[in-house]
Amino acid sequence: MISLSSHVLDTTTGKPAINMQITLTLPNGNEFEGVTNEDGRCKEFGEAALEAGTYCLRFHCKDYLIKTHGASFYPFVDIHFEITPNSGHYHVPLLISPYGFSSYRGS
Fold first, then answer.
1. Which CATH number is 94's domain given?
2. What is the DSSP letter of 84?
3. Dist. CA 50–CA 67, nearest whole Å
4. What pLDDT does residue 107 have?
5. Cα–Cα separations (whole angstroms), residue 69 to 54, 98, 104
6. What domain range is 16 assigned to?
């Protein structure tokens, strides 16, 4: 079974980004919504059934960054990634600040 989670950390404050909306787009174009919890984690994207293909996580970061820092260069951050057959769990973290971001494949 393939599963997916994400984690958003604010690199300026060193704290989790709470209540950030995330949209998961499946290879067929269907979209599912998630939101980060008090630890900045999102482990559920509705009833999304994951299989091999190319996906996109859109992190809607503008509101969070303006509320927290008063500025946001990025209205959103899109991370595209590929899921392979029988590949288990995927964790896609986002490190964000008002003027920079990075991501990697986590565990």
1. 2.60.40.180
2. P
3. 33
4. 84
5. 33, 7, 24
6. 3-103
* pLDDT block averages, 10 residues each, the chain of length 107: 94 97 97 98 93 97 97 97 91 97 93
Q: What whole-number distance in Å separates Cα of residue 107 and Cα of residue 91? A: 6
Report yes or no: 92 and 6 within 8 Å, Cβ to Cβ: yes
Total structural domains within the chain: 1
Q: How far apart are CA 65 and CA 53, in angstroms?
A: 31
Phi and psi at residue 26, in whole multiples of 5°? -80, 165
Q: The pTM is what?
A: 0.95
Query: Residue 83's CB: how many other CB atoms inside 10 A?
Result: 17
CB 106 within 8 A of CB 20: no
User: Where in the chain does DSSP place strands (E)?
Assistant: 3-10, 15-16, 21-25, 31-35, 41-42, 53-60, 77-83, 89-97, 100-103
